[in-house]
Amino acid sequence: MSAYRSSSPLDQLITGFDKALRVVGGVAASSRPNPGAHATDCELSDDERRHSAGLMRVNHVGEVCAQALYDAQARFGKSPTIRAQFAKSAREEEDHLAWTAERLSELGSQPSLLNPLWYAGSYVLGSIAAKLGDPQSLGFVVETERQVEAHLNRHLEDLPPQDAKSRAIVEQMRVDEIAHGASAQALGAADTPVPVKMLMTAMSKVMTTTAYHI
């Protein structure tokens, strides 16, 4: 039985609040080695360093959002199998959260100051998706991961070619996101309506543009 279903509402509230504080506070532990750990650290100009930091901050915000989305979807999902899949994906996404935070520090930068806002908004979206039913919630994951994959592909094109550490992290993130989308599809995801896809794209644009700077 899912931990969400076996604990009391108060325990769930405390657990959820504790997780939110850790995520927005930048407290994350990876279960896998950082893919950039063995990449050659290169010389970056000030402009290149700022650009890499901006892109990695956007990626870090994406992982903050992923934690909120998956936590809400796992909490309110109907099927134990699907709740377990959301929880598994969230654990893997926490690796991304830790890796991007570490790379931001190496680049002399910091996470987005708006992380509490990103987390809260994403938790609401995840809750709505879950309440619509498991197929719709899974469909939301498929579309989210499709858009994230496209966004990571653009980052691989935009990152300075010599920034091997950032590129290694983004490449592994891309592999994981593709797998998460495929898993959701295999569990019976419903197709997300076109207007919802368009709204998700517009919201993503606002988030990425803002997080690059703040």
Observed structural traits:
single chain; 214 residues; mainly alpha
What does this structure look like?
The chain is built from eight helices and no strands. The model has no long low-confidence stretch (mean pLDDT 87). It has 214 residues and is mainly alpha-helical.
Shape: globular
- Helical content band: over 70%
Class inferred from helices and paired strands = mainly alpha
The amount of beta strand, in percent, is under 5%
Question: Topology of this protein?
Answer:
Elements: H1 3-6, H2 9-24, H3 46-76, H4 80-106, H5 115-131, H6 134-158, H7 164-186, H8 194-213
Helix pairs in contact: 2-3, 3-4, 3-5, 3-6, 3-8, 4-7, 5-6, 6-7
Please provide a brief summary of the model.
By secondary structure, this protein is mostly helical. It has helices at 3-6, 9-24, 46-76, 80-106, 115-131, 134-158, 164-186, 194-213.
